[in-house]
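Researcher: Please predict.
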Amino acid sequence: MGLIQTIGEVEYPESDGMPMGETDVHRDWMVRILDILRLRYRGQRVYVASDLLVYYEEGDPSKYVAPDDFVVKDCSPHPRRTFKIWEEGRVPDVVFEVTSRSSRRKDEVFKPQEYRRLGVKEYFLYDPTSEYLRPPLQGFRLEQGEYTRLTADDTGALRCEQLGIILRLDESKLVMCDGRSGEVLRTEAEAADAAREAADTHAAQADAAREAADARAAELEAEVQRLRKELRRLSGEA
Protein backbone atom coordinates (compact mmCIF):
# COMPACT_ATOMS: atom_id res chain seq x y z
CA MET A 1 0.00 0.00 0.00
CA GLY A 2 1.44 3.32 -1.02
CA LEU A 3 1.90 6.34 1.16
CA ILE A 4 -0.84 8.32 -0.63
CA GLN A 5 -3.32 5.51 -0.07
CA THR A 6 -2.35 5.24 3.59
CA ILE A 7 -2.80 8.97 4.19
CA GLY A 8 -6.04 8.98 2.24
CA GLU A 9 -7.48 6.27 4.48
CA VAL A 10 -6.69 8.05 7.75
CA GLU A 11 -9.83 8.90 9.69
CA TYR A 12 -10.08 12.34 11.26
CA PRO A 13 -12.81 12.22 13.94
CA GLU A 14 -15.30 15.07 14.15
CA SER A 15 -15.23 14.94 17.94
CA ASP A 16 -12.50 14.33 20.47
CA GLY A 17 -14.93 12.18 22.46
CA MET A 18 -14.89 14.57 25.39
CA PRO A 19 -17.97 16.47 26.57
CA MET A 20 -17.73 20.24 26.59
CA GLY A 21 -17.99 20.15 30.38
CA GLU A 22 -18.37 23.89 30.83
CA THR A 23 -20.74 26.00 32.87
CA ASP A 24 -23.67 27.75 31.26
CA VAL A 25 -21.92 31.11 31.43
CA HIS A 26 -18.80 29.83 29.63
CA ARG A 27 -20.78 28.00 26.96
CA ASP A 28 -23.06 31.01 26.45
CA TRP A 29 -20.08 33.30 25.92
CA MET A 30 -18.54 30.93 23.39
CA VAL A 31 -21.80 31.03 21.42
CA ARG A 32 -22.14 34.79 21.84
CA ILE A 33 -18.65 35.48 20.47
CA LEU A 34 -19.39 33.14 17.57
CA ASP A 35 -22.66 34.94 16.79
CA ILE A 36 -21.06 38.38 16.96
CA LEU A 37 -18.23 37.45 14.62
CA ARG A 38 -20.47 35.60 12.16
CA LEU A 39 -22.72 38.61 11.82
CA ARG A 40 -19.75 40.94 11.38
CA TYR A 41 -18.36 38.85 8.52
CA ARG A 42 -21.61 37.78 6.88
CA GLY A 43 -21.28 37.82 3.12
CA GLN A 44 -17.50 38.04 3.27
CA ARG A 45 -14.83 35.48 2.52
CA VAL A 46 -14.16 34.81 6.20
CA TYR A 47 -14.69 31.56 8.12
CA VAL A 48 -15.81 31.71 11.75
CA ALA A 49 -16.26 28.63 13.93
CA SER A 50 -16.53 27.48 17.52
CA ASP A 51 -15.26 24.32 19.23
CA LEU A 52 -14.35 22.73 15.89
CA LEU A 53 -11.47 20.27 15.60
CA VAL A 54 -8.59 21.88 13.71
CA TYR A 55 -6.19 19.23 12.37
CA TYR A 56 -2.71 20.46 11.54
CA GLU A 57 -0.66 17.41 10.52
CA GLU A 58 -1.76 15.30 7.60
CA GLY A 59 -1.77 11.61 8.40
CA ASP A 60 -1.83 12.08 12.19
CA PRO A 61 -5.34 12.55 13.65
CA SER A 62 -3.86 13.05 17.12
CA LYS A 63 -2.50 16.43 16.04
CA TYR A 64 -5.40 18.81 16.54
CA VAL A 65 -6.65 21.75 18.58
CA ALA A 66 -10.21 22.81 19.31
CA PRO A 67 -10.39 26.58 19.85
CA ASP A 68 -13.44 27.95 21.62
CA ASP A 69 -13.83 30.46 18.77
CA PHE A 70 -11.62 31.25 15.80
CA VAL A 71 -11.56 33.34 12.63
CA VAL A 72 -9.86 32.51 9.33
CA LYS A 73 -9.61 35.35 6.82
CA ASP A 74 -9.56 34.83 3.05
CA CYS A 75 -11.30 31.48 3.54
CA SER A 76 -14.62 30.17 2.26
CA PRO A 77 -17.34 30.49 4.92
CA HIS A 78 -19.11 27.24 4.00
CA PRO A 79 -19.90 24.88 6.92
CA ARG A 80 -17.32 22.24 7.79
CA ARG A 81 -17.23 19.12 9.93
CA THR A 82 -13.53 19.59 10.70
CA PHE A 83 -10.85 22.05 9.60
CA LYS A 84 -7.77 20.49 8.00
CA ILE A 85 -5.03 23.05 7.61
CA TRP A 86 -3.23 21.24 4.76
CA GLU A 87 -6.45 21.18 2.72
CA GLU A 88 -7.49 24.76 3.47
CA GLY A 89 -4.04 26.25 2.99
CA ARG A 90 -4.90 28.59 5.86
CA VAL A 91 -4.54 28.68 9.64
CA PRO A 92 -6.77 30.57 12.08
CA ASP A 93 -5.80 34.24 12.16
CA VAL A 94 -7.35 34.91 15.56
CA VAL A 95 -8.39 32.60 18.39
CA PHE A 96 -10.58 33.35 21.41
CA GLU A 97 -10.61 31.13 24.49
CA VAL A 98 -13.27 31.50 27.21
CA THR A 99 -11.30 30.46 30.27
CA SER A 100 -12.77 28.40 33.09
CA ARG A 101 -11.47 26.49 36.08
CA SER A 102 -11.18 23.30 34.05
CA SER A 103 -9.54 24.92 31.02
CA ARG A 104 -7.33 27.57 32.65
CA ARG A 105 -4.01 25.73 32.50
CA LYS A 106 -4.66 24.43 29.00
CA ASP A 107 -5.66 27.90 27.78
CA GLU A 108 -2.72 29.70 29.39
CA VAL A 109 0.05 27.16 28.84
CA PHE A 110 -0.55 24.39 26.33
CA LYS A 111 -2.80 25.91 23.68
CA PRO A 112 -0.61 29.01 23.17
CA GLN A 113 2.31 26.72 22.38
CA GLU A 114 0.28 24.97 19.68
CA TYR A 115 -1.11 28.22 18.32
CA ARG A 116 2.39 29.69 18.16
CA ARG A 117 3.65 26.72 16.15
CA LEU A 118 0.67 27.01 13.80
CA GLY A 119 1.22 30.72 13.30
CA VAL A 120 -2.02 32.03 14.82
CA LYS A 121 -1.45 35.78 14.68
CA GLU A 122 -3.52 36.87 17.68
CA TYR A 123 -4.83 35.00 20.72
CA PHE A 124 -7.29 36.29 23.33
CA LEU A 125 -8.30 34.92 26.72
CA TYR A 126 -11.49 35.92 28.49
CA ASP A 127 -12.74 34.84 31.91
CA PRO A 128 -16.42 35.89 32.22
CA THR A 129 -16.45 35.13 35.96
CA SER A 130 -13.23 37.07 36.73
CA GLU A 131 -12.29 34.19 39.02
CA TYR A 132 -9.49 32.40 37.18
CA LEU A 133 -7.68 34.99 35.09
CA ARG A 134 -5.97 38.20 36.20
CA PRO A 135 -6.81 40.41 34.42
CA PRO A 136 -9.89 38.63 33.07
CA LEU A 137 -9.24 39.86 29.52
CA GLN A 138 -5.83 39.23 27.96
CA GLY A 139 -4.46 39.36 24.44
CA PHE A 140 -1.30 38.16 22.72
CA ARG A 141 0.18 38.92 19.29
CA LEU A 142 2.65 36.78 17.38
CA GLU A 143 5.84 38.75 16.79
CA GLN A 144 9.00 37.14 15.42
CA GLY A 145 7.70 33.68 16.24
CA GLU A 146 6.77 34.41 19.85
CA TYR A 147 3.65 35.71 21.56
CA THR A 148 3.90 39.21 23.01
CA ARG A 149 1.31 40.20 25.57
CA LEU A 150 -0.79 43.17 24.46
CA THR A 151 -0.82 46.30 26.58
CA ALA A 152 -4.26 47.68 27.37
CA ASP A 153 -4.99 51.35 26.74
CA ASP A 154 -6.09 53.81 29.45
CA THR A 155 -9.59 52.35 29.43
CA GLY A 156 -8.36 48.77 29.74
CA ALA A 157 -9.22 47.96 26.14
CA LEU A 158 -7.21 45.72 23.80
CA ARG A 159 -6.99 46.04 20.03
CA CYS A 160 -7.26 43.05 17.72
CA GLU A 161 -5.37 44.23 14.64
CA GLN A 162 -6.29 41.26 12.49
CA LEU A 163 -10.03 41.90 12.84
CA GLY A 164 -9.95 45.65 13.38
CA ILE A 165 -11.93 45.44 16.60
CA ILE A 166 -11.54 46.74 20.15
CA LEU A 167 -12.17 44.43 23.10
CA ARG A 168 -13.01 45.80 26.53
CA LEU A 169 -14.87 44.84 29.68
CA ASP A 170 -18.04 46.45 30.96
CA GLU A 171 -18.67 45.17 34.49
CA SER A 172 -16.87 41.90 33.59
CA LYS A 173 -18.86 41.50 30.35
CA LEU A 174 -16.87 41.37 27.12
CA VAL A 175 -17.73 44.15 24.68
CA MET A 176 -16.44 44.10 21.11
CA CYS A 177 -16.46 47.31 19.07
CA ASP A 178 -15.57 48.26 15.53
CA GLY A 179 -12.10 49.78 15.65
CA ARG A 180 -12.99 52.66 13.31
CA SER A 181 -16.54 53.66 14.16
CA GLY A 182 -16.55 52.55 17.78
CA GLU A 183 -19.92 50.89 17.16
CA VAL A 184 -20.64 48.01 19.54
CA LEU A 185 -20.79 44.70 17.71
CA ARG A 186 -23.94 42.68 18.36
CA THR A 187 -25.31 39.21 17.81
CA GLU A 188 -27.90 38.78 15.09
CA ALA A 189 -30.71 38.72 17.67
CA GLU A 190 -29.40 41.85 19.35
CA ALA A 191 -29.05 43.61 16.00
CA ALA A 192 -32.64 42.67 15.13
CA ASP A 193 -33.86 43.99 18.49
CA ALA A 194 -31.90 47.21 17.98
CA ALA A 195 -33.37 47.60 14.50
CA ARG A 196 -36.90 47.10 15.85
CA GLU A 197 -36.28 49.61 18.63
CA ALA A 198 -34.91 52.11 16.13
CA ALA A 199 -37.93 51.54 13.87
CA ASP A 200 -40.31 51.96 16.82
CA THR A 201 -38.51 55.13 17.88
CA HIS A 202 -38.65 56.48 14.32
CA ALA A 203 -42.36 55.63 14.07
CA ALA A 204 -43.05 57.31 17.42
CA GLN A 205 -41.14 60.39 16.33
CA ALA A 206 -43.04 60.44 13.03
CA ASP A 207 -46.36 60.14 14.88
CA ALA A 208 -45.37 62.96 17.22
CA ALA A 209 -44.33 65.09 14.25
CA ARG A 210 -47.66 64.41 12.50
CA GLU A 211 -49.61 65.25 15.65
CA ALA A 212 -47.64 68.47 16.06
CA ALA A 213 -48.24 69.33 12.39
CA ASP A 214 -51.97 68.59 12.72
CA ALA A 215 -52.17 70.74 15.85
CA ARG A 216 -50.35 73.58 14.11
CA ALA A 217 -52.61 73.26 11.08
CA ALA A 218 -55.65 73.45 13.36
CA GLU A 219 -54.24 76.55 15.01
CA LEU A 220 -53.63 78.17 11.63
CA GLU A 221 -57.12 77.29 10.42
CA ALA A 222 -58.61 78.78 13.56
CA GLU A 223 -56.58 81.95 13.01
CA VAL A 224 -57.69 82.14 9.39
CA GLN A 225 -61.33 81.83 10.45
CA ARG A 226 -60.86 84.52 13.08
CA LEU A 227 -59.28 86.88 10.58
CA ARG A 228 -62.08 86.29 8.07
CA LYS A 229 -64.67 87.01 10.72
CA GLU A 230 -62.83 90.15 11.69
CA LEU A 231 -62.69 91.26 8.05
CA ARG A 232 -66.43 90.74 7.63
CA ARG A 233 -67.08 92.75 10.77
CA LEU A 234 -64.85 95.57 9.58
CA SER A 235 -66.47 95.51 6.15
CA GLY A 236 -69.90 95.80 7.74
CA GLU A 237 -68.85 98.79 9.78
CA ALA A 238 -67.56 100.49 6.67
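Model: The chain is about 40% helix and 20% strand.
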